[in-house]
Specification:
This protein is of the alpha/beta class. It has 2 domains: 3-123 and 210-221, Rossmann fold (3-Layer(aba) Sandwich), CATH 3.40.50.1360; 132-206, 2-Layer Sandwich (Alpha-Beta Plaits), CATH 3.30.70.260. It has 6 helices and 13 strands. Strand 1 (21-24), helix 2 and strand 2 (48-51) form a beta-alpha-beta unit. It is globular and about 55 Å long. It starts with a helix and ends in a 5-residue tail after the last strand. The relative contact order is 0.18.
Length: 233
Amino acid sequence: MSNVKQMAGEAALDYVSAGMKLGIGTGSTAEAFVRALAPKVADGLSIIGVPTSERTRELCEELSVPLTTLEETPHLDLTIDGADEIDPDLALIKGAGGALLREKIVAAASDRMVVIADTSKIVETLGTTFPVPIEVDRFGLAATRNAIEKAATKLGLSGDIVLRGGPDTPYITDGGLLILDASFRRIVDPQRLAVALTCIPGVVEHGLFVGLADTAIIAGETGVEILSASDAT
């Protein structure tokens, strides 16, 4: 684990207080947060977490971070999670790790979302370095892909839409769904694309997180910078 990711994970502890119900994200930077959180819990910090993936659940159990579920605890105080891209408005692309559906459910159930990342995740326009992951049902996959292409074309977007893992060994999410990775390159209006994707019946969820994060902790070689959605222009 890089020192930069460790810095971001440790900085996120400043937002955690006793008694909190936490959404705990997925990915290498979120893992750094869990590893920073575990010693605090061992020292007596009383929190309970909802993991966004089986991978995160296993790590929390290994490190004795107490867990609950959204069924037992449907309202959370805070979610701390990573991101694949972060734009100046704190709109995000998430889902390279395949947990986007659960990540969005958990984030939406929280009062606030703090994103932790390194400086490489900052972009001027979403889609620059990462495709948009789109979690889809197996049924009607070709029709769903066509609908995504049509919706993107109406917004002036184009690019390859590929099945993650390929047709012979497709990647299966924790929810038993598939992921289409859509390389739209420059998404000038992520909100419009998010709405268009949501309207497609075969799309269960997409990796555009718009209006969910209010703070971003960005770690780099020179230290940690805090970005706020209220500062966005």
